[in-house]
Design a protein that fits this description.
The chain is an all-alpha fold. The chain has one domain: Ferritin (Up-down Bundle), CATH 1.20.1260. Helix content is 60%, strand content 0%. Helix 2 (72-103) packs antiparallel against helix 4, helix 2 (72-103) runs antiparallel to helix 5 and helix 4 (113-143) runs antiparallel to helix 6. InterPro entries: Ferritin-like, Ferritin-like_SF, Pigment-catalase-like, TAT_signal.
Length: 243
């Protein structure tokens, strides 16, 4: 799974361009300060907010950050850290809990039928998706001349041991991932990256919908989903990342 290039033409007015530029500049500065914290084991949390927290940025096609905020490679590494977290969470949780205990958990017993029977296998598919996203983002970062961030160390506590807590936490992580992509995508400067980023975003939204159903909730609770700020992403995902 790789990011593919497409051609896009921006036909907005000069005034719109100026307003969007100011918005992006401010947002990207906020993003960099938070991404340094979120990647606590991988993005060097102690680095100054005005500096790039990643290594080996060659400055090719958006790999080098500026005083206004992170580079596109930094943003993709932020997403890669979240994908690492999700992939490791599913792998650890499904391996530890096992198919039988998950199948017999209260949320799935309440649902019953084919959804209960297929849940474990579908969650393994989601795990594979997250691992594919990690690789795709790594390829894209290398294509920008950047260095893909390594997988940090995670501690999920009892969330990967108790099936009820596992399903509830998975739903939270998926919702967080969807909203994080929605919040970060407008900050990407290289328009050729947007189609593939949105492609991952839509798959994450399907994951979120499925996890909502497994938890006995609506798969589509809102007509319009809201993006999360980087501080909100940090609040939800940061505690699982070991510094």
């Amino acid at each position: 799974m790789r990011f593919e290039r497409t051609t896009m033409t921006d036909e907005r007015s000069t005034d719109d361009d100026t307003a969007q530029s100011r918005f992006n500049s401010s947002s990207r500065r906020r993003f960099l300060g938070t991404s340094a914290l979120l990647g606590a084991g991988a993005l060097a949390a102690t680095a100054p907010a005005s500096a790039t927290t990643l290594t080996s940025m060659d400055g090719h096609d958006g790999s080098e950050g500026t005083d206004d905020g992170p580079s596109d490679a930094d943003i993709l590494n932020f997403a890669r850290t979240l994908e690492f977290l999700e992939a490791r969470f599913y792998r650890e949780g499904l391996d530890t809990i096992g198919e039988h205990d998950l199948h017999c958990s209260e949320p799935l017993r309440m649902i019953g039928g084919p959804i209960q029977d297929d849940a474990y296998g579908e969650l393994r598919v989601i795990q594979a998706h997250e691992e594919a996203h990690v690789e795709a983002l790594g390829d894209a970062i290398e294509g920008l001349g950047g260095e893909p961030v390594a997988e940090p160390e995670f501690d999920f506590g009892t969330a990967t041991e108790d099936p009820v807590e596992f399903l509830a936490t998975a739903a939270t992580l998926e919702t967080t991932g969807v909203a994080a992509y929605a919040g970060a995508a407008p900050l990407i400067e290289n328009a050729e990256l947007i189609p593939s980023a949105l492609g991952i975003h839509s798959v994450e939204a399907r994951h979120s919908s499925f996890l909502n159903v497994l938890n006995g909730e609506s798969g589509f609770p809102e007509a319009v989903d809201q993006p999360l700020t980087m501080d909100e992403v940090l609040e939800r995902a940061g505690p699982f990342i070991v510094e």
